[in-house]
Amino acid sequence: MAEYWSTLDVDLHLAVDPASGRRVGLEQALREAIRDGRLGAGTRLPSTRTLAAELGLARGTVSAAYDQLVAEGHLVATRGSGTRVAELGTQGAGNPSPAKATAGVSARGEPAGSPQRLAHNLRPGTPDLSHFPRAAWLRAARRAVNAAPNEAFGYGDPRGRIELRRALAEYLGRARGVRTDAERIIIVSGAVQGLALLGQVLGGTFAMEDPYIPLFHEVVRSHGAQVAPLPVDDDGARVDLLRGPDFDGAGTAVVTPSHQYPIGSTLHPARRQALVEWARAGRRVIVEDDYDGEFRYDRQPVGAVQGMAPERTVYLGTASKTLGPAVRLAWLVLPEHLVGPLTEAKRHADHQSESLGQLTLAEFIASHDYDRHIRAARLRYRRRRDLLAERLHTRAGRPAAGFALGGIAAGLHALVRLEPAGMTEAEVLKRAAEFDLDLEGLGDLWHTPPANTLASSAARPQGIVVGFGSPTEAAYPRALDALVRTLSWR
Amino acid sequence: MAEYWSTLDVDLHLAVDPASGRRVGLEQALREAIRDGRLGAGTRLPSTRTLAAELGLARGTVSAAYDQLVAEGHLVATRGSGTRVAELGTQGAGNPSPAKATAGVSARGEPAGSPQRLAHNLRPGTPDLSHFPRAAWLRAARRAVNAAPNEAFGYGDPRGRIELRRALAEYLGRARGVRTDAERIIIVSGAVQGLALLGQVLGGTFAMEDPYIPLFHEVVRSHGAQVAPLPVDDDGARVDLLRGPDFDGAGTAVVTPSHQYPIGSTLHPARRQALVEWARAGRRVIVEDDYDGEFRYDRQPVGAVQGMAPERTVYLGTASKTLGPAVRLAWLVLPEHLVGPLTEAKRHADHQSESLGQLTLAEFIASHDYDRHIRAARLRYRRRRDLLAERLHTRAGRPAAGFALGGIAAGLHALVRLEPAGMTEAEVLKRAAEFDLDLEGLGDLWHTPPANTLASSAARPQGIVVGFGSPTEAAYPRALDALVRTLSWR
């Protein structure tokens, strides 16, 4: 006999075994629910009157069962606040401890909870999360949720909310030179999902920059496409190689034209032209990963490649660097012929992205809060960039030879290139750890990590990716000190 | 030469062709930006002073360019509010019209914008969206976002926020009899994503109930698994057939034990037992789609099957029926051995679900707002269910023979079974349309739609799925009137 009961506050499903008799059966059921954690520590139980009525038992039966469990230490009866499940330590074993539940790390090293971190963090990948615009975001959420029609809380267009797609069409046009209307935009849950859907729909071989983010290579591969690594240099991706034998079957090229990740170079205008010609010649697709295009510090050509060839380019933008990765909002701007297949893939992946965040971002953009937020962030990151350049070039007590700073025209990271005369990457990372500083080596970002030999190390540039956007304002100067000390090796 | 300029409010990327001379080049660049929609109607331009400073031009040059565009009708100069892009109709062709941007329907008939709807809606699939708890949700969001640590805005555990996983472990334990701790829960973006990831990770053949939601069959297939349709009857899924030749290779069974969709039956206790034995015998996996388990109206055994065999069952729960599909929050409770592979698949799908909604739901559950909301909804839907039963059984002016009402013990939908003596499904749907009533026929929910012949129609039960949860409170009585009239055929 399973019974269902409820109190003013909580629902509970209880299986009372009729063979044990009513009181004992109820006791057993409650005891089991407490032991296996279904009734958590501190949970208030219904009054004996309520539970008796719900279960069709005499009130005295329920009281007796409660008394027994209080006696056992499973429950605590407090005058005025009723009967509650006892706190940990005062009850029997078997209740999973919150401490245990906190621990644990996911399959591939993503931290769960609060992992142990080094004191200083210049690891790239996230903006300064302390500047997430909590108050402005909540205001926008309030306006958006209150103004939303009822249907906004239901299933909708797999492409996402029309309010956000319209706001983005306008924003991306003026801020990034993207040519589109709302109909060709699909809201996705981060760049990872964008690449996953593209891998699935386009298939074949993707030419992808190398070095790049290894997870992105993996995502494309795990969704059915092949990856051919495309070298990069100081002028961005080696577009000239696309016509060579290594990329014979490639139908798609994934590039970061405005600020190559992690090298930091900008795709040269001649290469942009060549890339577009390559795509047009073979009806191929350019995927433009514009992950930090909003953060440019020096006047230079930085419009989206998409503006040159909207019919051959998928523009992939994101709020991960402007707001924070946790909002999981990114957008694909698609050539007409890909809208149908990508919409269908999105529908089969998760039907649509979460709508309330989309409505909030639409409101955030429409009110120009988004522009203001980006402007303030750009100023802040430019100051950090300037300070980084200043400290590394002129201020490092004893001038730190053996490296050069690059990729600083834009974005939230720069590249410290290590020269053969100086320290190796491994040496720098070891020294950094001694100064309690978290850094990322270029070595982790190659498509095929080099074998751990001198020969292969020598063949590839060595470098350190410095994420100057990651720390808080207050922590940045000290992190920079640690970096300067790390690099001041003689 | 591409230049970047900015105003107090907006960012804009402009490519000024130096070959045209400064004034003409600026005019052309602005004209083009307006024509192709990058500068939307109503957008305020920067002052001539600001733009001149940004571009390093004389102010007079910018003024002259603005004057020219005002003369052409592209811009409008208003005393006090500066210069703006002209509204539609007053400017040249080529600017995509907002009306056009609104229209359009996505690849598979999902409505974009506001499609034409029938006056009365009893189509199943969503709860009453007018009861989305906007105010309580916004309050929870405010508390959650303000209390969140900075790291909550960054990348996190692909399984989702620990706060929500802990709250769910407690809630699902007491309310649904699910046995788990937070470590075995993965937050996914709706049931669709849950099934997509399971299809991808488990592969092989999925036995899936028939009838069921066709999209779910498609999702599993498009993620690499096969589907074998599993018949259902008044005792739920025909679990006995799983040992027969049609399911020889099936390693996974997807079932809706608490309220079969769309038949509405509850999986019989003996079949639950048999299902668990089948799974244990072959180390197979049960996927329990518990989409509306919170809404039970009569006392009966309805705990999750997962509680009987946590090591062989994936429990799939969702907030789509309790809150609304738009929040895209669902959860997989996994056997230990599947946590790693599913976490990895989630990481490759979209890294993690959006965090702010997760934190909000965690707060909503912890404050018991979730329980209160569900309780109020359950009461409301029970009244609707009672009214439905009353109207169809006793009140239909001339008693409406030829059908029977079933599946009403739980959930947000019921099944009107059409008896051979009465109208066919097609006849009912046609009549419903005449009464301006939107309904779903059982015929759309079979794994293989029957050929449009009398023979195949006769072989399958005919019925109408009545989504009594869908309309607003105010609209429900009229929708019910329309249903009664539709079914009162003699």
3D structure, described in words:
The structure is a homodimer of 490-residue chains. In chain A, a hairpin with a 2-residue loop joins strand 8 (226-233) and strand 9. The termini of chain A are far apart. The first copy, chain A, folds into three domains: 2-89, Arc Repressor Mutant, subunit A; 133-371, Aspartate Aminotransferase, domain 2 (3-Layer(aba) Sandwich), CATH 3.40.640; 373-487, Aspartate Aminotransferase, domain 1. The first copy, chain A, is 38% helix and 17% strand. Chain A is globular, with a radius of gyration of 29 Å. The first copy, chain A, has helices at 22-35, 48-55, 59-72, 98-102, 134-147, 162-176, 191-202, 214-222, 269-281, 336-350, 355-366, 369-395, 425-434, 454-459, 476-487, and strands at 2-6, 11-15, 75-78, 82-85, 120-121, 185-188, 205-210, 226-233, 236-237, 250-255, 285-289, 313-318, 330-333, 403-406, 413-418, 437-438, 440-441, 462-467. By secondary structure, chain A is an alpha/beta fold. Chains A and B meet through strand 1, strand 2, helix 4, helix 5 and helix 6 of A and strand 1, strand 2, helix 4, helix 5 and helix 6 of B.
